[in-house]
Amino acid sequence: MSLTKKGNVSLDEFRRVMYNAISQEPFATRFAKLSTSGDRRGMVEMIVEMPYVAGLKPDDSYQGKDDAQAARLYERSHKAMTGNGEHATEEIEMYNDTLTKTLFAASVNDRVFLDTLCERARRSYSLRAYASCLRDCECMLALPASFYDDSVENVKYFVQRRKEFLQLERECSRKLEAASTRKRSSGRGKAASIASSPKTSSLGKRGVTTAPIVDGRQHGYLVSCPDSVTLQFHVAKGRHLVATRDIRPGAVLIVDRPFSYSTDAPALIRNCLHCHATLKLEDSVRIPCRNCQTVSFCTETCRKEAWERYHQYECSVFNYFLENTSNNECRQKSHLLLAYRTTVIQALSVDTSKLNSAEIKCVLNPDFLRYHINGNEKSEDDDISNECAELGTKKPYSPLDYRTIFQLKTHCADVGPNVNLVRTIESVFLAKCLLFVLSKLDVICTKETFVPLAIGMLHHLQAIDCNAYEIIENVYDETTRVWEPRNIGGAIYTTVSLVNHSCYPNVIRHSYPNGIVVVRALRSISKGCEILDCYGPQFLSESRLTRREFLWKKYRFLCECDACMHNWTFPLPETVNYKCTACSEPLDLSGINANAARKVTHQQCAKCEKTIDLQKIEKQLHKSIQKRLNAIAKMYQGNYRDAMPLLFEHAHFVNKYLAEPNIEGIKTEQCIVQCYNSLGSISV
What are the DSSP calls for 437-492, one per residue? Predict the structure, then answer.
């Protein structure tokens, strides 16, 4: 199959042809040796040398603007709303939807775009959705007059529309300020009323929540952590986080920013491409990219920031990232876009010598090329190793520092050659796409620079497979009264990646706007204990064999957490097992028959010989369980913030007196998770 015709090859085609070619001898044996030795450069160069690759020239692959389609949609919207009668809700929703589709299809320098934007803004104003109107005003007022200077008539039309938007902007700002003043006045001296629905109570005006800060003082070197945790290294565990003091349930232990992030295809119309805020609320608007019809933004600010940071380098090839393959569902996710963006963010930098010119030029970052010039996992560069060695212990460990990305585990030499072959093929294709985009920006890229770019892509694809996390929003189910998670995209969090796995984790992660992830303690964590997350399989839902098999295949380790070592199984018995309050050793009542055990009021710890008053603890337990039940009642009313202190008190009691695992602890932790689901990124 020839791949020499420009732009005629999809990623799926390229992957299939190259895989079939390299799978044949003598290529298969040669590639397997390179894979086993962790030689990324060798693997990339082998693919690049294939005759198919020389002819691969990706072309524009995106849904561009269509002014003819926009004109038809605009005309349809007017026909739908003609007449003097009242319109049904369905007709109004269809009208609004058609206006938005028109906005996305129209070129920004076309009159239809200005007319549609103005109409949508006026409609928001008439419905008193002033925040939405302001976002449309911001979008229009950011348009430069140079887009319309091809004729005097167009300039006059643009100026006229600009005056209308300026007036709308002033009116909306005045209305919002007046509403804010009334709200402050009415709120004085009385408590805020409780919302009738948990969903409306949590969503607030725009469904935007602010991420919390870490509890306590910030760590001296771990930028995203408090000083209650520290970074340690162990030969078997690698780098990991440990508690420096006793930590109570609910404590915020990590607030991590993503180095890079991406959006899953189904979320492209539901969420902002840049901050991932929901676009499903009544006062939200969808702001289009100025170049394509595919992605959405919640504000002009997000559109501008995304374009400057990464979207200008992916927009014209965006459809390559939306391809699905029939034989692997995970390929339908956004891992390719995530690897591409990670490369773009670090590999490209602004040419400072051109800052005063009309057009800002980008150049290849020599530091990025230096990091990936070698590309051999087993032959580390001493200078680079020294640069990374003391991060988190003697030098700041920042989530936005590329050195923390470079340190992430890739397991390049440990995975099968077939896995590395697919990733290498994809990395070369992605590098070709970037080369195509850079050529349009007059950035020169030779073979000597292309290979490190492809090696970097491969490095990131491998790291993503082991270290990427989901970006989640939670949706409230009115029937079950449960917040259900829904994937938005993926991200790389280098601080969270320091946390090792347990099938019974003691922390929980939640997504917040702008891709921020917050890690909180689920239960009490004693000083010196490791902070443990869950990479997917939990003992509550899967057997030890299934969990260990999954973790070995994906992460290359044999899980030895408490749940695996003691082979905990679910469901747990309803019986309560107490532990010593002095040394935390479980109290052994196994030698006493069931009837006698019920009559035991005191028990001596076999380890430290302290006498425990079981009767007293049992009475306290019944009182503490009532706190959980009271908290659940508050949760059903939507009062999650009021429920949390009760849950934390009960969790602290359970952690102190009951041996793990216990059903009471599990029930409490699930309630705590639901409370935090309501406080992070949420949607309808």
Answer: HHHHTT----HHHHHHHHHHHHHHHHHHHHHEEEEEEEEEETTTTEEEEEEEEEEE
Stated pTM of the model? 0.90
Taking residue 227's Cβ as centre, other Cβ atoms within 10 Å add up to 15
Evaluate the CA torsion angle 60, 63, 67, 68 in order and state its sign: positive
Helix axes 335-347, 447-467, angle to 10 degrees: 130
* Beta strand extents in 247-330 (DSSP E only): 252-256, 260-263, 287-288, 296-297
Residues 6+ apart with CB under 8 A from 463: 405, 408, 409, 410, 492
- Write the single-letter amino acid at 359: E
276 Cβ partners below 8 Å, 6+ apart? 261, 263, 267, 471, 473, 488, 489, 511, 513, 514, 515, 681
Q: What are residue 222's DSSP bridge partners? A: 397
C-alpha–C-alpha distance, residues 512 and 208, integer Å: 9
Structure tokens at 410: 């890739």
For residue 81, pLDDT beyond 80: no
Contact 536, 548 (CB under 8 A): no
Burial 325-349 (b: 16+ CB within 10 A, else e): eeeeeebebbbbbbbbbbbbbbbbe
d(CA 107, CA 568) in angstroms, rounded, equals: 60
CB 463 within 8 A of CB 554: no
Q: What is the pLDDT of residues 588-617, one digit of tens each?
A: 765 454 455 556 788 888 888 888 888 899
Give the largest CA-CA distance in the chain: 98
Task: Return the H-helix or E-strand segment holding 414.
Answer: none
Q: For 42-80, what is each residue's pLDDT tens digit? A: 999 999 999 889 888 899 999 999 999 999 999 988 776
Q: 571, 560, 566: which is closest to 586 by C-alpha? A: 566
Residues 442, 361 contacting (CB under 8 angstroms): yes
Task: Supply the DSSP string of 631-661, one letter for each residue.
Answer: HHHHHHTT-HHHHHHHHHHHHHHHHHHBPSS
Task: Centre a 10 Å sphere on the Cβ of residue 25 and count the other Cβ atoms it contains.
Answer: 7
Residue that is written with structure tokens 């001596």 in the block: 604
Assess contact for 326 and 308: CB atoms under 8 A.
Answer: no
CA atoms within 13 A on the CB side of 270: 17
Q: How far apart are CA 57 and CA 318, in angstroms?
A: 15
Q: Report the b/e string of 66-102 with b at 16+ CB within 10 A.
A: eeeebbebbeebeeebeeeeeeeeeeeebbbebbbbb
What is the DSSP code (8-state) at residue 525? Answer: B
Q: Dihedral sign, CA of 570, 574, 579, 584?
A: positive
Strands 287-288 and 260-263: unpaired
Percent of the chain past pLDDT 70, that is, above it, reads 89
**If residue 508 lies in a helix (H) or strand (E), which one and from where to where?**
strand 507-511
Which three-class secondary structure state does DSSP give residue 215? coil
Are 504 and 561 a contacting pair, CB within 8 Å? Answer: yes
The b/e string for 430-441 (b: 16+ C-beta within 10 A; e otherwise) is: bbbbbbbbbeee
In sign, the C-alpha dihedral spanning 388, 389, 391, 395 is negative
